[in-house]
């Protein structure tokens, strides 16, 4: 029995606390004034009366009512019914401070009456909202109508006289005394929520999907916030969500109406369900992890950071289907032509509400089906203690991996559910009955929707009857105030306290003695909770064992052989049994079989039997995981304590000492679940006569409980047949009230004894499994595994998140004792506390644990001592790897196991093949490689050799890994390393137990030192050489002990001799601003024998400086002409021995003898790049001296200005420059570029004569020079003034470019060439603009002023106007006059973007003209590149990938190609990781720019200069690839070698720096710049396989060896450094490079005579040895075999210029990154590969023999050669058999090619069209680059196909394919016609139609295209670019632009959030919304892809955003895409509606 209401409160406006705009309310009266004993009064009720705040109003407002729900500290809900009305309030005007007394009257407001809110409320624990509303309404009616009823009587009756029975009671009819009649009907069950019709209203407001989302979020403990303009709607929505959660109870913060002053509660970290008024919706948007629900708008917003989990898919689909049946019943008959007349619509709201709840109850039952079978009974008396085994439940139902259910079972709501509904004997409700009958209902339904709907209505009827149990309706009478009374606002009177309290007291006394009230109380009946049938999936899981019985015969036989001591037979089956243990079924059978042998007293085993049993247990535990709730470990625990072997007399070793290393033993949740299961078994056996062996339900004999022991009477006999623990406990709970107190105490004591004994038992088990056999070693797995929450107990919150004890990982014996003691004590304390063990037994347990641990350690010491005496297990012999000549093993083989990684190759499984991994062998470290060689552990593949190796120099990352147990092993592997290589190899190696931790750490340190040697000569490429050491003749003082200090002092002396003191100070200031890093040259060398450079010294690192470039000296630009010092980094890497800590240099030796001083041009005569210059006509060495100051016939010459590497250290000694350009001019020009890398000519087109140039990037401060104060260093120059010197450097650049343009044919024929806007006149692709607008601009100021401004901006200083004038000759340049000065030819978009040109008139921009030269560079160089407009030289900015981006991309790409572990996460899929790495987009960037260079040079005839970064990374990639595409010579063996030597080696790509060859470069990180170039070549090779003489294997070998350090070819950073090394290193002994003859297996030796000692005074140049070369190695291999030859190569068959596709879809991931061969290792060291292959095949196979080739093990290309190579071998073999002189393979191929050239080559039209299409796409990309769209998406091949449809031609029509008539008399004109372009053809001629649809995407009307028109269109596409160099000028787009809607809109920016007006165009064909700056601008500012649009609608909230233009508030548009949100603003609502409709139509279509 409960009171209807606990408190009545009157709350009014607080005048005392009114301060400005802040108003408060206060409690005026409350009744009763004293708190009830069991119901405290809530403080702060005034806040909930006015949630929006207390405010005075000018006008009265009608009375309002709402409900606020409060929660007390004990989680009890209190319902506050609040009625608020307005009360008049007279305001006394206050005199303002700034008004005088005479002004007061005029300032008063006539309306001095204000209205304040006043609230009356009832506070109750009962949820009778309608009754509260009626009672408060009656009180207000009585007051406002002035009825003759005292208000005190009404309130007193409510508080004291009306008593409501509990749930299940009879109806109560009452009156409060105001002429009313009311009735209250309590529900049948208080556990079932009462909702009336609120749930149906919620679905009406939000819809099905939104409510399901809210339901899922609430179940998974997320934050939900409702907002609405109605407080009643907020309360109803929150109540509805809680009702849908039934039978779960919401345990977190629940505030349906949150007052505005308490809005800070929204920042709470705990989950909540709250509601706020819509006035706070703007503040809601700032909450990041809160789901906002708009009840008024019907939308929800789930933040991105919230993981919205939902029920499993099949449950979700069923829920949707059933809700649709109920909410939309007409949907099923909507499409019927004759719908039935008897169809019914939706039910009434009250019934619809219950039907919806019934559907959600069915979902809850399905999620909890069979949950009672996973409940564990821990205690029965005095009250049940129950735990839910979550992991076991998920495993049995097969629901692992369902994140929603897993999170649900971990939630606090589920813990409360288990505590309330877990007891087996209690009051049941609708849910319990539904759980018991649901399985039967599902069987009856079986897809019958009518039956489903019937069952739903039956459940809904029960819910309705729960709320309305009385069938007799009762008509209530509730008087209401009249309409006129509502307008009469009177102050609410103050109630009489004494009178009201007397009425309340009287009612309370009357209720105590009222007999009717006692009779109306109905006590609900308790009953046994039905368990229900087993779920269907549960039965299937249990029957798996029986279904697999036949397949388990091998397991049983093997175990039988082991225990019968038939070990030979057992070993034959053993590998098969080990592999089968991956199945859970097999592991369960294994546990049962072993348990049977234990029961037969066969636990004492022999030595070998013990080893095999332990291995079986280890392998089974290895596969056991938290997913299976460690069920197997629970079964293996008693077996590990049972099986044992006798070591000697009195000493027995148990199996647990050999299975301790598994992580399960360190998981506290495992021990908890195992403990609870044993306690449940013990408690169950306590109350039955026969003990049960099963954990849940077993057959037991009937017995009688011993009454003498349990204190029970003889008639208390319990039958236990087929009773589960839940049923046993239910029976005990049923008998509990009838048992006496003494018997109850005995039962509680017995149960506590069971818990106590099991705690001791498990404490012993834990000590056995946690204390290691060798107590001196650290504890294994001291930290719990991941996922242990799967087995968490749901007893309390602490049990739900139990963690294992975390140790520090390293302990001695005493630390082991302490750690294990703490671990066991924590477990004991937790489980005993939860199980109700009293304090005294618990203290005894804690005192026993240290003694148990100490005793066990003492016993293990003897076992460990005797186990060491056992004979060691014989291990396989270590296989030694084959070594190269000069390769030696530095570290002997460390035994261990090669583990499988993330790649599937070699592990068998789904892809098939033998299980090659893991493999047992050894890890070797040589001076060249890291090698593993061993044999697979799998016995079926153990005869195969597994080799995995990679060069030591390619090591990328090494880290330590934890291993654990492996299949097939009987011991724990603790140490392991993972090594990743730049050659895309991964070695995961686990060390054997014989390898100690010290050896592992020593190996790791040594690998790092050997990977980064301190000096370059210690690498493998320099093995067998001697070093010439410095001649140290004098010792320096300490002040000059270092190179840097010596260089500084020397520099200061040079300065002192040339400059004054003031000039020195000025120069020192410049030193601080700008410095160059120049290397220091080595001095006079002296020979150092290589014997002094031992292997041990190579391990030690050298001390280096902390600079980014170690041992370098910083010099000023002023001193470049005054001092000449060579490379300090080279010196440090060559001459510092490991024992030296400093280098002593004689000051007099500086400059005595520089090796570069002896270099002359004739010594570079044989360089390959010099010969290539001659081939290209860029200069001839023979005429070098004659043409040095003249002009050649071709206009170019070779200059030796850099012969001593003084101008540019990274440039070659000879470079090609324009003939008129003098050496002094080059020196001045070089200062404008980074690292002095001035522009040089590298290639010349043979037809167009266009040039390709390369250079370093322009200096960041501008062309005007980095050195402003360097005028004194150039006193020998022609310009004498300082400012004139600065200007001359800029003019030198213009003069140089003019000479380049003058010597190219494009400048001669410029008059006949078309302008740039006509380049794309005949393109077949869509192009908005024919060419980029690169025209000249009108300059508001004079040319001189603009030129001066550029000087000031670039140099940062002032410039003096010169008197230079523009001259007519190329050699004499001067500053142009005002009239003739032209502005720059930069495009106005680029210039405006950069900001360097601000005075440009866009409206009068002239048409651009064709440029004679294009310069590609960085966007940041736009300020720098400023030339005279008459040069017609354009700068094109291009976005490229910097080195840091390449490094980051390579790391991600390598992890994608060689993952360390297999991942099932879709986000970690291979293609996803490749996409995230952005490797292919970087390849695309290089190929696109190289293609643009090709088009400009080959088609347009314009010269191109590439000038990026420092000129040695991205520039080299683009230039070399462009040359490869344009020149077929570079696609041969010889030409490709020349290309690499010229562009990469001669022009100074930093191989040593980028590949981190030495310790000095370790910090820079590996940058695969050269690898990207080789990958680009691979992509081109794949698209044009007939154009390359070499094959893919050659490219893979190049990619492998450029980082291997086997050859000297790809080492050092420049030609200068290689010359220095060549002059200082001599051969110590004759070293031969052995190359295997693949036909005869002979070894060819390239023996060189040993070099004699070189006299210091002798000629070193004549005796300098050749550097070991990669090209020599390739040539020797190429002479013996066709291993590198491309058999598909056909010279001349392909076009001269290649234009590959560069879009991502056309690129392929290189096989080099993915493939590996475990049989022989990498196939790129041919000697090793062939030796390993011959080692496997002891008897060589004849050609007729057959062999099995496994793709995951062997190299298929080597084992199975293609037909061409097979025929070559056959020809050679036949010539040998016929005793004919054997021909060389190249001779045979040349003869064959010569015979094929005479045959005519036919080219199909399809091929020609494909070529033309590829050319058009290539040129389209070029035009995009010229426009500045370098990062755009490439066109998609033949993406626009025809859409042919059948068409009836009424008139004769020609076929556009075969030109024959389609229409005929025999057959009425039926043919095919394209719906887009109107292409007409026969059905058979469709295949001959052009692939590209000419009108696809066009806005024009399709029309019939005749054959003539088709031919003209086809001819407009250039077929052969070689015939006409100007064909590129005819490039244009055929497809026009399609615009369905356009206009101006305001758009809100993404970053700065500013509103800007843009011009928008809607393209329906491309599904794009493009926007521009204005309507006359053709350059697209941005694009919105409509495919990504999720919704577009009116935006009602953007009007509150800052900076919004003042337009119509209803014209905001909100567009949500998958990437971001857009906000737009139209002029008015009409335009906004039109835009929304157009966009929606476009999306729909």
Protein model, in words:
With 2045 residues, the chain is an alpha+beta fold. The chain is 36% helix and 14% strand. The strands form 15 sheets. The chain has a seven-stranded antiparallel sheet with strand order 25-24-23-22-28-27-26. The protein has a seven-stranded antiparallel sheet with strand order 49-48-47-46-52-51-50, with helices on one face. The protein is globular and about 130 Å long. About 21% of the residues have low confidence.
Q: Helical amount among residues, as a percent range? A: 25-40%
Radius of gyration: 45 Å
Largest sheet: 7 strands, antiparallel
What global shape is seen?
globular
Q: Tally of extended strands?
A: 52
Low-confidence stretches: 104-110, 541-547, 690-721, 782-813, 1030-1046, 1053-1153, 1188-1193, 1261-1286, 1307-1408, 1627-1667, 1738-1744, 1830-1839, ...
The average pLDDT value, as a whole number, equals 74
**Structural class based on helices, strands and sheet pairing:** alpha+beta
Amino-to-carboxy terminus distance: 65 Å
What oligomeric arrangement do these chains adopt? single chain
Question: Percent of residues in beta strands?
Answer: 5-15%
What is the count of helical runs?
60
Strand order of the largest sheet: 25-24-23-22-28-27-26
